[in-house]
Amino acid sequence: MTNKPEANLIPFAIIGVIIIIAAAVVIPKSSFFKEKNTLNAQEVGEKVIDFIDKNILQGQATASLINVVEDNDLYKLTFTINNQEFTSYATLNGSLLFPEAIDLNVQPPPLQQLPPESLPQDIPEQEPSPQDVPGTDNPDEE
């Protein structure tokens, strides 16, 4: 009975293929190989405050950063404007700003019904006059 060297290698080859497949699945998902395009909390905080000051407040007030913490894969920013505290959220790379977050795990309070007198009343439809319709003869233009 001769032992063929190839026959002994088959189990090792199968194990090798399994290891290669497992590595191909696991390694790309590891944080070591993910693109490092996230900013640190301080950088995002400064970017958000700068954006708010320049584009929203435009010199009428100044925002001041109080705190930035990572929360649910976002940065939670606490800041003040005219001594009033606000909380907003930004992506980890600092590219998107969310003025507020809605927790989908919490039941919102019921909506309050508006009294009928505060609702808009039916407005009768009006036929457009010739001046309102383009392409029609307007006697005033002659």
List keywords for this structure.
142 residues; alpha+beta; Nuclear Transport Factor 2, Chain: A
Question: What would you note in describing this structure?
Answer:
The protein has 142 residues and is an alpha+beta fold. The chain has a domain of 71 residues: Nuclear Transport Factor 2, Chain: A. 27% of the residues lie in helices and 19% in strands. The protein contains 2 helices and 4 strands, in the order ααββββ. The chain has a 4-stranded antiparallel β-sheet with strand order 1-2-3-4, covered by helices on one side. A hairpin with a 2-residue loop joins strand 1 and strand 2. The model has no long low-confidence stretch (mean pLDDT 81).
What portion of residues belong to β-strands? Answer: 15-25%
Q: Please state how the strands of the largest beta sheet are arranged side by side.
A: 1-2-3-4
The poorly predicted ranges are none
Average pLDDT, to the nearest integer? 81
The total of beta strands comes to 4
Question: In this structure, how is the largest beta sheet organized?
Answer: 4 strands, antiparallel
Q: What is the chain-wise order of helices and strands?
A: HHEEEE
CATH class descriptor of the domain at 37-107: Alpha Beta
Label the structural class.
alpha+beta
CATH architecture of the domain at 37-107, by name, is Roll
Taking the alpha carbons of the first and last residues, their distance comes to 114 Å
CATH topology of the domain at 37-107: Nuclear Transport Factor 2, Chain: A
Helix content: 25-40%
Basic shape: elongated
Rg of Cα set: 32 Å
